[in-house]
Amino acid sequence: MVYVKSFLDDLREKRKINLERSEEYVNEVFGNICNNIDSLTFISKLKTHDKYTYTHNLNVSIFSIAFATCLGLGAENIKIIGLSGLFHDIGKMLIDQDILNKPGKLTLPEFEEMKKHPVIGYSLLKADHRHQTDVCKATLQHHEKFSGGGYPDDLKFSEISNQAMLISIVDVFDALTSDRIYKPRIDLHRALGILFNLKGTALNPVLVDKFIKFLGVYPVGSIVELANGKRAIVVEQNNLNLLRPKVRIIMDKNNKYCSAEDVDLLDENHVDDKDFEIIETIRAEDCRVNVMSYLY
Ligand SMILES: [Fe+2]
Ligand SMILES: [Fe+2]
User: Fold this and answer.
1) Which of 64, 155, 160, 285 is the most exposed place for a label (fewest CB within 10 A)?
2) Which ligand is located closest to the Cα atom of residue 120?
3) For 111-147, what is the HEC assignment?
4) Nearest ligand to the C-alpha atom of residue 92
């Protein structure tokens, strides 16, 4: 959990992710949970083929384990989720590197080729008889969509395994917050906004809400900057949308203290107003605010 926290801090503060620590963490976690599968040897084959996918698989595994632990799932289930995260894109090992690392948009035939990776991954894992059925299944289903229309089998929510639905949220989150050759990473707040908008279509809505809660983006007392330049303190969560809490504005757009004004970001006057979107979290020490004096 300490690792996950520092990983999130790196992300929030736009620092480079520490890959060595990711590997140490995974070694530690997997040392405990998979004593008879030499997972890291298998996954390291992917490293030589495509470095991004290798790192991405590690991240998805780490985050999925932390998220599943936070949900209170059982040890066996967490193990399946951790392994599913680790292997979910293993099929990309057999996809042409020119397609994987193409700087521009994929052509239709290239995209069709890319879409084969869940089936390839499933076959690779199945052929190695040590892998559990649930891990193979989550690998196969991680691009299925909650409301249908995903690949390879166009399944709907009741047909998609719980492990696959969990992995797919973390998968999208990690892809959005990572630098790629064809796009820079986007910040945590925007990434969560995109996940929120995929609720009920591509992603399981209940799990997305829990994931946002798990990340603890705007706990009460955090200081945030709005798109209109004003700074505010989060005073209460809105359970309907954790990305739009109730806030107390304390600084104007010139960073000058102003008389406190309470605003519900989910209020109908503000919910569609771009000016009232949170764009950043600010550390209390960076703006010398005595948060407690504003909360009580
Ligand atoms: Fe994938
Ligand atoms: Fe992925």
Assistant:
1) 285
2) 1
3) HHHHCCHHHHHHHHHHHCCCCCHHHHHHHHHCCCCCC
4) 1
Cα 143 to ligand 1 centroid, rounded to whole Å: 6
Express each pLDDT in 53-103 by its tens digit. 888 988 899 889 889 988 999 888 988 998 899 889 989 988 998 998 888
Cα of 287 to ligand 2 centre, how many Å? 38
Ligand nearest to the CA of 121: 1
Show the CA angle centred on residue 113, arms to residues 147 and 179, nearest 5°. 75
Indicate the CATH number for domain 2-215: 1.10.3210.10
Q: How many CB atoms lie within 10 A of CB 256?
A: 7
Domain boundaries, the chain: 2-215, 223-295
Q: For the whole model, what pTM was predicted?
A: 0.79
Place of tokens 């009920």: 200
Task: Name every residue whose Cβ is closer than 8 Å to that of residue 290 and which is 6 or more positions away in sequence.
Answer: none
How confident is the model over 209-253, as pLDDT tens digits? Answer: 999 888 877 878 889 999 999 999 999 888 788 889 999 999 999
Residue among 165, 154, 148, 190 nearest 281 (CA): 190
